[in-house]
Design goal:
Largest sheet: 6 strands, antiparallel
Number of domains: 1
Radius of gyration: 22 Å
Strand order of the largest sheet: 4-3-2-1-5-6
Structural class: alpha+beta
CATH architecture: 2-Layer Sandwich
Number of strands: 6
Helix content: 25-40%
Shape: globular
Number of helices: 3
CATH superfamily: Mago nashi
Amino acid sequence: MPMKLFITTPQLILVFSFLFSCKTQQTITTPEQFSKNIISFSSGGGFTGAETIYTILENGQVFSSSGLDTKKFTLLSALPKKQVKAIFEKTLQINWAKDAINDPGNIYHTLSFGTTKDMKKQVWGGGKQSPSKEITDLYYELNTIINPKTK
């Protein structure tokens, strides 16, 4: 004799709410694939001309790229949501147009913000222009977060 399966309405509601509450998160393998805001900061130059770039996505993923070919990214980690939110709020407070500088030197630093299609970038190290305190503070804070040994 076959056994009948009875599903009550509360059980059915529970199953459907579980199925529809599960979000599929897009796996990002490079910062170029991300359509929302990113923060990127780097240092480079010198004798070799190599550059080290760190990129923080708005979803918290952190990537690095270094050397002469900076198109190869490595996923480092993911930052806590609360920390990412605070970083992006600070970044939004900067007047990127007013503080725009492009003064690379032999050894330079950069800080960029925006989407991959609309990136605002600050470059300094040449000695003719200095970035605002907000930019340098954010640059060093990001460096400390990503590379705790630099404290």
